Amino acid sequence: MNERRSITILGATGSVGGSTLDLIRRDRGAWDVVALTAHSNVDDLARLAREFGAQLAVIGEEHRLGDLREALAGSDVEAAAGAQALCEAAARPADIAVAAIVGCAGLAPVMAAIERGGTVALANKEALVSAGEVMTRAVERHGARLLPVDSEHNAIFQCLAGNSLDDVRWITLTASGGPLRLVGDLDSVTPAQAVAHPNWDMGAKISVDSATMFNKGLELIEAHHLFPVGLDRFRIVVHPQSVIHSMVEYRDGSTLAQLGPSDMRVPIASCLAWPERMDTPCEPLDLAAIGELSFFAPDEERFPATRLAREAAEAGGAAPAVLNAANEVAVAAFLAGQIKFSRISSLVAQVLDGGNLPPAPQSLEDVLMLDRAARTRASNLLETG
Ligand SMILES: NC(=O)C1=CN([C@@H]2O[C@H](COP(=O)(O)OP(=O)(O)OC[C@H]3O[C@@H](n4cnc5c(N)ncnc54)[C@H](OP(=O)(O)O)[C@@H]3O)[C@@H](O)[C@H]2O)C=CC1
Ligand SMILES: CC(=O)[C@@H](O)[C@H](O)COP(=O)(O)O
Ligand SMILES: [Mn+2]
C-alpha cells in the first residue's frame, strides 16, 4: 500500500478489533483512524482512541457518555454514545470500515456503512446472516464493496480471484470441529470448556458457536450470500488443524485452497491492503512441523447446527434471521450458566419449528423486528423450560 488511508473500526475493543489495531499500530504512518466503537468497555475504548488519535469514539451504551467524556478529557477525540451514534460513526467517510461488532447488534451500523457506499471489511457474520438479501441488495444499490474478513470467506474470496463463479463446481468450507469434537458427554460441558478453541483465540460468542458448529452453519449462510453459486454447491469438511481455511474446486478438476496460520491478522491484512498485499508479523507456515492434515465428514447427529443452518438457508426469507436470533439468546444463556450446552441447538430448532415464520424481510426495519420477535420467543421458551 502506498497511499495513506483512513479507517473506522466498529467493535474496536474486541478480538477482531484488536487484531486490526495491531496491524495499524505496526504501520502507524499509513493510517488515519476516523472512528472507534465499543459497547460498554469505556476504558479500553478511550485508551485506544487516544493511542490512535481517533477523530471519534462511540460507546454503544448511551448512559456511559459521561464516563467516556471523562476518560477522553484533555484529548481531541470527540465522544458520542448510543445506537444512533454507532450508525453515524459507521457512516463517516473512511476508506474502509471494519465491521467487528458481535451479533445482530452490528447490523444497523453495517448497513449505515454500506449506505454510504464505502468499503466494508465484514467480520460480523450475524449481520449478513440476519439481513441476507436486504444487505446484498443494499451493497449493489449503493455501490458499496464487502470484503470478507471471516477466515473461510476470505480464503474463498482469494481462491476465486480471477475466476468466474460459473466455473465453480464446489466450495468447501473447512471447520476445525471445535473443542468438543471428541468429547463424549455434551450435557456436562462447561462454558470454560466450550470457549477453549483448539486453534483460534476469539471472543466468547464465536468460540461457543465453534463448539456447537453453529459457527459453520452461520458461515454456510454467509458464504451463500457472498458467493452466489447455489446452496447445493457448498460442502463442509472437518479439518482439525485449521491450516486450510477453505477451498474452491473448479469444473476442470482444479482445487484452489488458501492456507495460513490460525491468526486473524492474515485475513484482516488481506482486506486492509486489498487488492494489494501488506506485511504481517504472522509466523510463516511450516508444513513439515505441522506434519499431517486430516479431514472428516461433519457429525450432524451430535452437532445438528450445520443441518439446521442449511435448512434455514434453503427455507430463506425470515428463517436465517430467526436461527441467528435464537442462537444468540441460547449462547448468552449458556455462557450465563442458565442452560446446558446441548440445549443451544435444541432451542434453535424449537424456535424455528414453532409455527409460521414471518414473511421475508424487505428492509432493515423488518429484519430488526423479526430479530426482536425471535429473541422474545427464544427467551419465553427458556423461561417455560
Ligand atoms: N474473533 C475472531 O477471530 C473472529 C470473529 N469473527 C466475527 O467477528 C465478530 C466479532 O467477533 P469477536 O471480535 O470475536 O468478538 P468480541 O466479543 O471479542 O468483540 C466484540 C466487539 O463488539 C462490541 N460489542 C458487543 N456487543 C455490542 C453491542 N450490542 N453494540 C455495539 N457493540 C458491541 C464489543 O464491545 P465491548 O468490548 O465494549 O463489549 C467489542 O468491541 C463476530 O461476528 C464474530 O463472529 C469472525 C471470524 C473470526
Ligand atoms: C477464525 C475464524 O474465521 C473462525 O470462524 C474460525 O474459523 C472458527 O473455527 P471453526 O468454527 O472452524 O471451529
Ligand atoms: Mn470463520
UniProtKB/TrEMBL annotation:
What is the superkingdom listed in this entry's lineage? Bacteria
**Keywords recorded for this protein, A-Z:** Isomerase, Isoprene biosynthesis, Magnesium, Manganese, Metal-binding, NADP, Oxidoreductase
This chain belongs to the protein called 1-deoxy-D-xylulose 5-phosphate reductoisomerase
State the signal peptide span. none
E.C. numbers: 1.1.1.267
Q: Which organism does this record belong to?
A: Qipengyuania pelagi
Ubl conjugation: present as a keyword of the record? no
UniProt cofactor(s): Mg(2+); Mn(2+)
Positions of the 1-deoxy-D-xylulose 5-phosphate reductoisomerase N-terminal domain: 7-132
Matching SUPFAM superfamilies: 1-deoxy-D-xylulose-5-phosphate reductoisomerase, C-terminal domain, Glyceraldehyde-3-phosphate dehydrogenase-like, C-terminal domain, NAD(P)-binding Rossmann-fold domains
Its taxonomic path starts at:
Bacteria, Pseudomonadati, Pseudomonadota, Alphaproteobacteria, Sphingomonadales
| GO MF annotations in UniProt | 1-deoxy-D-xylulose-5-phosphate reductoisomerase activity; isomerase activity; manganese ion binding; NADPH binding
Q: What does this protein do?
A: Catalyzes the NADPH-dependent rearrangement and reduction of 1-deoxy-D-xylulose-5-phosphate (DXP) to 2-C-methyl-D-erythritol 4-phosphate (MEP).
Q: Which residues bind 1-deoxy-D-xylulose 5-phosphate?
A: K125, S151, E152, S176, H197, S210, N215, K216, E219
Q: Which residues cross the membrane?
A: none
The pathway entry for this protein reads as: Isoprenoid biosynthesis; isopentenyl diphosphate biosynthesis via DXP pathway; isopentenyl diphosphate from 1-deoxy-D-xylulose 5-phosphate: step 1/6
Gene that this sequence comes from: dxr
Q: Outline the extent of the DXP reductoisomerase C-terminal domain.
A: 259-376
Q: Which one GO biological process term can you cite for this protein? A: isopentenyl diphosphate biosynthetic process, methylerythritol 4-phosphate pathway involved in terpenoid biosynthetic process
Q: Which family does it belong to?
A: Belongs to the DXR family.
Q: Which reaction does it catalyse?
A: 2-C-methyl-D-erythritol 4-phosphate + NADP(+) = 1-deoxy-D-xylulose 5-phosphate + NADPH + H(+)
Locate the residues binding NADPH.
T13, G14, S15, V16, N41, N124, E126, G203
Question: In which residues is Mn(2+) bound?
Answer: D150, E152, E219
Annotated 1-deoxy-D-xylulose 5-phosphate reductoisomerase C-terminal domain residues: 146-227
